[in-house]
Design goal:
Elements (H helix, E strand, L loop, with lengths): L4 E7 L9 E8 L2 E6 L4 E7 L5 E2 L1 E7 L5 E6 L3 E2 L5 H22 L4 E4 L1 E7 L8 E5 L3 E4 L26 E9 L10 E2 L14 E7 L3 E2 L5 E3 L1 H4 L4 E7 L6
Parallel strand pairs: 13-15
Antiparallel strand pairs: 1-4, 2-3, 2-6, 5-8, 6-7, 9-12, 10-11, 10-13, 14-17, 15-18, 16-17
Bound molecules: zinc ion.
Length: 244
């Protein structure tokens, strides 16, 4: 997966050849990423920061003429984005917390939809590259017919080719539907017509109430009274994981 770490291990055998070695160099996609000197065995950590294709290489350089003695390439690995399941496992709890927050801040006058963008950002280096960014919440009066989760703009910041340069990708989006325990009338629940799948297979989630009423056509509703006790329901739409 993008952001994964690899350890490149080198062991120099037999031991007495170490004195002929000047240093060991590490490459990712043929770009220099580090160097070790000394003797014996070395470990170097490389991370899949910015390119889907990843191939590591270790070059042992000898003292004589600074010439490579030995080099070894790893298999070519193609890094994928996290799947919807992996993201949900990782951030499901935080999605729940945002849902609870939306209910807590809903007042007699205003209701809130909360939105979040889930990022994979490898620019920070060797740390945890995943974050859930809670976007600013907007207050809506109950009489508003169209609620819109204030997801706002989200844009990748991608650098091509060089594995030393991390990039930032959107790997999921999330929003809640308005809290309803203070509302003056029932509303329809569940994914709305505006909840269209994002591009590139990016997964999306909406959190809404379990319905407590259905109309003659089977359309599910939540009543203000039902909203006081109804549990939340996380619904997934969009792709199973970003594809490019
Ligand atoms: Zn929605």
């Amino acid at each position: 997966m993008l952001g994964s770490r690899y350890t490149l291990s080198v062991e120099i055998l037999p031991q007495n050849t170490a004195e002929n070695i000047a240093y060991v160099e590490y490459y990712a996609n043929d770009i220099f990423i580090g160097r070790d000197s000394g003797s014996g065995s070395f470990d170097f950590m490389a991370q899949a920061l910015g390119d889907h294709r990843f191939q590591a290489c270790v070059v042992v350089v000898g003292r004589e003429n600074d010439a490579p003695i030995e080099s070894d390439y790893s298999d070519v690995v193609t890094h994928r984005f996290p799947t919807a399941d992996e993201i949900e496992e990782r951030f499901g709890e935080q999605m729940n917390e945002l849902w609870e927050l939306s209910k807590a801040i809903g007042s007699a006058e205003y209701t809130f939809e909360i939105a979040a963008v889930i990022w994979l950002d490898t620019r920070i280096g060797y740390g945890d590259p995943f974050t859930l960014e809670h976007r600013p919440s907007e207050a809506y009066p109950y009489t508003l017919q169209e609620f819109g989760a204030p997801l706002g703009e989200y844009q990748d910041e991608v650098y091509g080719g060089d594995p030393r340069l991390g990039s930032k990708w959107v790997v999921g989006i999330f929003h809640t539907h308005p809290s309803w325990h203070n509302a003056p009338f029932p509303r329809v629940v569940g994914r709305s017509a505006e909840d269209t799948p994002p591009a590139n297979g990016i997964p999306a989630w909406v959190m809404d109430y379990e319905a407590d009423e259905w109309d003659a056509y089977g359309v599910p509703y939540i009543t203000p009274r039902g909203a006081r006790t109804a549990s939340g329901k996380l619904e997934r739409y969009g792709g199973n994981g970003r594809i490019k």
